[in-house]
Specification:
Helices cover about 70% and strands about 0% of the residues. The protein is mostly helical. Helix 1 runs parallel beside helix 12.
């Protein structure tokens, strides 16, 4: 499920915490890294699960309207298209989905007020109005409606951010990625008529990549920081921005440890991460230092890449 970039971000956060919070056990750091990766899948199921909750809100409103002593024509003859949404129905009837959400406590009952506000926002949007007014009914149309919901209602939502922060401090930075995965998997659901149940890692070797990257970075952290200081005579290691230090160490560890990952890709990945997790000047600093140190290790033979073009800058 999670991409190599997200793995690198998780490894960066874990390494940063290990070096700056006094964590003494590499084993605990590894556990924290894998847990942070698994939490992405939990967020995926949690966000998907709001689909059924939104249908429940719609069903409740219809029921209340029909029970009125003098219902309006619309209340007496409600449009049931949304409450009969086949995608939400598929989620509700999927035993694996239900078991996972129940086991990990991924229900929305505690956040009913938020679900109602999302529903109130959703029904004002053109995508919902067009869906309800459509004379057709299909599984694809029902899935596409929820694609619009996930695209439109949750990103940059401060109330949702607060909910996620209360449930897991690991979730705030993962929301945009998870929403994109949900939307992408909707096309697979349309084709297969089945809910996508992703594994945490896209490939089994990605888990190995995560653990080896972290272990090598921890093991050689002091060595690499000394190398940075030696190549920057006007700098001392204590003057390094901690986030920059962690990113440079990770970049060096990756370049040395993984012979099939191109040097250019490694440098670009950590430069990109620095834009979001360090200072405004970090992009230039991380790029320059990593490029210089990696090229020195290539020249010395410590970095050996397998495959044509893997050493290109």
């Amino acid at each position: 499920m999670i991409s190599r970039r997200l793995i690198r971000i998780k490894a960066f956060k874990t390494l940063f915490a290990y070096e700056n919070s006094g964590c003494e056990s590499v084993g605990i750091a590894e556990q924290n890294l894998i847990e942070s990766c698994d939490k992405v899948k939990d967020l995926y199921y949690f966000m998907l699960n709001i689909s059924s909750s939104l249908v429940d809100v719609a069903s409740e409103r219809i029921s209340v309207g029909m029970k009125k002593f003098h219902p309006t024509q619309q209340e007496a003859n409600p449009n049931l298209k949304f409450v009969n949404n086949k995608f939400a129905g598929l989620l509700a009837s999927d035993p694996e989905f239900g078991r996972y959400c129940q086991k990990h406590g991924l229900g929305w009952g505690e956040y009913d007020a938020f679900v109602r506000r999302v529903f109130s926002s959703m029904i004002t949007k053109d995508y919902y109005k067009n869906y309800m007014a459509s004379g057709t009914s299909s599984f694809e149309e029902d899935c596409n409606l929820f694609s619009c919901v996930f695209q439109d209602e949750f990103e940059d939502n401060e109330e949702l951010a607060s909910i996620l922060e209360d449930m897991s401090i690991l979730w705030i930075d993962d929301l945009a990625y998870v929403l994109n995965v949900i939307i992408a998997n909707m096309d697979i659901t349309i084709r297969r008529k089945k809910i996508v149940h992703p594994a945490t890692f896209l490939k089994e070797e990605d888990k190995d990549f995560a653990i080896r990257l972290l272990d090598e970075s921890i093991m050689r952290y002091d060595e690499y920081i000394d190398l940075v200081s030696a190549n920057l005579p006007n700098w001392k290691s204590e003057r390094l921005v901690p986030a920059d230090a962690a990113l440079i160490v990770l970049g060096l560890a990756e370049a040395v440890t993984f012979p099939t990952i191109p040097v250019k890709a490694t440098i670009n990945e950590y430069v990109e991460i620095s834009k979001y997790y360090s200072t405004p000047n970090s992009r230039i600093f991380v790029n320059g230092v990593l490029d210089k140190l990696i090229q020195e290790k290539v020249a010395s033979g410590e970095i050996r890449k397998q495959g044509r073009g893997l050493l290109e800058n």
